[in-house]
Structures are given as structure tokens and as C-alpha cells.
TrEMBL record:
InterPro entries: AMP-bd_C_sf (IPR045851), AMP-dep_synth/lig_dom (IPR000873), ANL_N_sf (IPR042099). GO terms for molecular function: ligase activity. Keywords: Ligase. Residues 137-289 form the AMP-dependent synthetase/ligase domain. This is Phenylacetate-CoA ligase.
């Protein structure tokens, strides 16, 4: 049985770099022709002159917030241009339209992302393989199958491996336990917190789930303490890092030393808020250029912090490694697999004139996130607090406790989201 999903995972570093950068000019030309926003990003640049990593710094970084604003501007007709429907929806970044795209998804904002019909479009099959999944197995997928693409990310990856998928989705814990007991899947995909909940519910019910021996997690941090907890249950858990915009960025291998980059992407670590690449080892913002012909994002700033690790993974894969997710370069944070943006909290305040200022405090440990919205209100009536809670739920798709505080009591430091969780 081969150790690698593809032999190119152990290609020499110079060979890989030459192949990636050699494909870049043609990819840039194609993106410029089919995606108007990419043409604007490349304005004044000759794609044939972008052949090295230092050349990439001539391309402006586009951050997630700018992608959202571009989509909103086009959807609301604020650009003054008569654009095709697909350009309006995707902000001019997509190279494919209706019919060519198999699905379209929405992330908070909302930001809309296309999925093409290419097999393993999101690139997670490589991560599944590294986590021990193999053809002919049943994969129990507990990522959401509505709005966001996580469910499809894992399903298309499993299909690319030759696996069958059970779409477990989220919620209904007792039914999840029963289905796993009946179907005896070999592996789980989803957030680590939800699998922990399922296993603890199985304990309460007195049900054994011995078939689960491997898991691929994403959407949440996966600290060593939680990895050890699953290992004690006979489950080898691995993590993959990706986004709805870029697909899979990096993945964990049995070496358990950082995350190995996916093939077909060029990753830089840049100074947060800037565009200058940082030296190896320094912590900065993850910026990715993808060679995806359907959604060709160039120097896309994820807002995530990480650093490049020196050397090659002991598992034999030769691509660059990053330390993994190390927080956010801005105040945007991820709670139970969903991004929460400062702009969403601003929308809550706008809906309720009684609120002078608000701050979302995210606390707890991995797998038990707690959101508390501290709102400055002079008269904390029960109906008002219930209304604020409903607005948070609608705008973020997450529940939060509402804590009324005295007007003027929140710090005047510009902070809207305060993430105080422990990642130990």
C-alpha cells in the first residue's frame, strides 16, 4: 500500500517550485481573461514577468474583507457597470458561471463561493489519505450540508478516494450514535468537538462504537490535549486547514510536525495588514495564490496567522510546512466552525438603537466555545435582550448569551470581538 496520495508529494523542493512557478504565467493570463476582478488586480502587470516569489509582491494582496466588499458592491449595483449575473454574485472573481458550477455556497457576510464539477474540487482527498482513509471504506461525514461547503469538501474528497459517504450533518446526537453503531463506519469527518459530543453521548447510552478508528478534523483548533483524548478512545485524529475560498491549504500527517502544504498552491507568510513576505519562521498572515482555474484567487489574504517551519517532514512529504492556525490577524474569529466578523456585531448594534456599544467575548476551551455579547444598555428589558439574542443568531448562525452592562463601561479600545479561549 502506497504511503502517498500522489508521488509528487515527495518531489524535490526545487522540482516542485519550478513546476508551480512555471505554470503561474499561463494561470494568470487565463484568470485575467475570465475573471474581471483578477484583471483589475493584475492591471499594469505582465503575467509573463511573474516567474518568481519575489515577483509575486508586485501583485496587491486581496483580503477576505475586500472580497466581501467587492461582492456587496456588485450585488447592490454600486459599481455603475452592467455586469453578468455571475460577476455580480461572485464580485468578478469567479471564472465559471451557472451550469459550469456544480454548487454555490454561502459563508457569513454573506460571501458566495462556487464549486466546479472537477473531481475533488476542494483538494481534501490528499488530507484524507494522509489520515489513513482508503478506498472501499464508509466515511461518516458530520460537516454541515447547507449554506457552507464543508460537507461537500469532505464528501467530494471521499468520493475521489473511492469511499462511500454517510451525510450525518450536525445535531441529533442520539440518532448519530445509533447510525454509527448500525453502519460501522471506519472514519469520521467533521469538527473535533462534535465527535467528542457523540462519543460522550454513546457512553451515556451504553453504546460501543469500535468501528471508528480514524478521523479528519477541520473547522476548529485541534490541540495536543484533544488529540490525546481521541487516541485514548482508539481514534487517530488528524487536522486539515482550509477555507471556503481556497479549499484545502495544509494538512497533518503521521509525523505530527506541523501541517504540510497542499499541492497546486503558492503560500506566503506576510506582515499582517501589508504585502511584504516575511522570512521563514516569522509569524505573519497566511497569503495564498491558488492555481484553481475556476476560482483563481491571487495573493488572497486569509486573515489567519501562522509561520513556515524549517526542513522537511519526517513522513517524507517534501512540501513546505506551516505551524498550523495561530490566531487571526484581525478581530474576525472562528466559533464552532463558523467565522464571526466585527461587521456582524456592528449590524446587531445597528438593529437595536438602545445599544450604545457592544463587545463579543468568546471564551471556553476547544470543543466548548461560549459566546457572550456584552451590550451597553440603559434599560435592560427582557424583551430587548431576547431581541438582541435573536439578531446575533440570525446574523452569525450561532447562539450567544447577552449580558447587559452599564453605558460607558466597555473599554474605549476599538475592540469588537475579544477571543479569550485557551488553546492548550
Amino acid at each position: 500500500m502506497t504511503t502517498y496520495f500522489e508521488e509528487r508529494e515527495r518531489a524535490s523542493a526545487p522540482e516542485r517550485e519550478q513546476a508551480l512557478l512555471g505554470r503561474l504565467p499561463a494561470a494568470l493570463k487565463s484568470a485575467r481573461e475570465r475573471a474581471p476582478a483578477i484583471a483589475a488586480q493584475l492591471q499594469g502587470l505582465d503575467p509573463d514577468g511573474i516567474r518568481g516569489r519575489s515577483d509575486l509582491e508586485r501583485i496587491p494582496v486581496v483580503r477576505k474583507s475586500e472580497l466581501l466588499q467587492a461582492q456587496l458592491a456588485m450585488r447592490q449595483g454600486r459599481t455603475g457597470q452592467d455586469l453578468p449575473a455571475v460577476s455580480r454574485i461572485f464580485g468578478g472573481y469567479s471564472a465559471i458561471g451557472w451550469g459550469e458550477a456544480a454548487r454555490v455556497f454561502a459563508s457569513p457576510g454573506p460571501i458566495y463561493e462556487p464549486e466546479s464539477k472537477r473531481p475533488d474540487y476542494w483538494g481534501f482527498a490528499r488530507a484524507l489519505y494522509a489520515a489513513g482513509f482508503r478506498s472501499g471504506e464508509l466515511v461518516y461525514n458530520c460537516f454541515s450540508y447547507h449554506f457552507t461547503p464543508a460537507g461537500s469538501m469532505m464528501e467530494t474528497a471521499a468520493h475521489a478516494l473511492g469511499c462511500t459517504v454517510f451525510p450525518g450533518g450536525v445535531g441529533q446526537t442520539e440518532q448519530q450514535v445509533q447510525a454509527i453503531a448500525d453502519l460501522a463506519p471506519a472514519g469520521y469527518t467533521g469538527t473535533p468537538s462534535f465527535l467528542k459530543i457523540i462519543l460522550e453521548k454513546a457512553d451515556e447510552m451504553g453504546v460501543k462504537l469500535p468501528s471508528l478508528t480514524r478521523a479528519l478534523f477541520s473547522g476548529e483548533a485541534f490541540p495536543p490535549s484533544l488529540c490525546k483524548w481521541f487516541a485514548g478512545r482508539g481514534i487517530a485524529g488528524y487536522q486539515a486547514y482550509g477555507s471556503a475560498d481556497l479549499g484545502m491549504i495544509a494538512y497533518e500527517t503521521p509525523a505530527r510536525e506541523g501541517l504540510v502544504l497542499n499541492e497546486d498552491i503558492i503560500l506566503e507568510i506576510v506582515r499582517p495588514g501589508g504585502s511584504q513576505a516575511l522570512p521563514q519562521g516569522e509569524v505573519g498572515e497566511v497569503v495564498v495564490t491558488t492555481l484553481n482555474p475556476d476560482y483563481p484567487l491571487l495573493r488572497f489574504g486569509t486573515g489567519d496567522l501562522s509561520a513556515i517551519l524549517p526542513g522537511v517532514s519526517p513522513c517524507g512529504r517534501t512540501n513546505l510546512r506551516i505551524r498550523g492556525w495561530m490566531g487571526r490577524a484581525d478581530q474576525t474569529t472562528k466559533v464552532r466552525g463558523m467565522f464571526v466578523h466585527p461587521g456582524q456585531i456592528a449590524q446587531v448594534v445597528k438593529r437595536h438603537p438602545e445599544v450604545g456599544k457592544a463587545r463579543l467575548v468568546v471564551s471556553g476551551k476547544v470543543g466548548s466555545d461560549v459566546m457572550v455579547l456584552k451590550a451597553e444598555v440603559a434599560d435592560p428589558a427582557a424583551d430587548l435582550l431576547l431581541g438582541i439574542a435573536a439578531s446575533v443568531r440570525e446574523l452569525t448562525k450561532l447562539r450567544a448569551d447577552i449580558e447587559a452592562v452599564e453605558p460607558g463601561s466597555l473599554p474605549n479600545d476599538g475592540k469588537v470581538i475579544d477571543d479569550i479561549r485557551s488553546y492548550e
